């Protein structure tokens, strides 16, 4: 069986990397969570980006570290500001689906200069959040490619 894995070209392996094989768990908060609690959440869950959803888990917004820092600098009462007034909201959110190629997702991250994409399933009612795809996931895929091809 030696050498079997190298019968697939590097190009082919790269095109076969899918979002579903490298995605992480999403960290989801509700629209009425306060900015203060969102900051606590970022630390507790150890993520860089929170996704904001309605009660049915449909994507409403994205909150990054910088969104939270920007609001904190203003030094208003962070316990009184709900995240939905500072988040980036639909329809301005870039997202991907499980079956997408990682190359497509990586392109979206670079094109929009962002750290993560919500992984969603499109339904009649909206975009249901099923995962999170980050630059770290892309980096892990890059390593797996090197390992598969004995680079
Ligand atoms: P940070 O600001 O912590 O460096 P990002 O670079 O990911 O994190 O975020 C930059 C800006 O882009 C923020 O205002 C954030 O709300 C927004 N953003 C983050 N992810 C997305 C996304 N998937 N689609 C659209 N906007 C996003």
Automatic annotation (TrEMBL):
This is CBS domain-containing protein. It comes from the Bacteria. Residues 22-78, 87-151 form the CBS domain. The keyword RNA-binding does not apply. Keywords: CBS domain, Repeat.
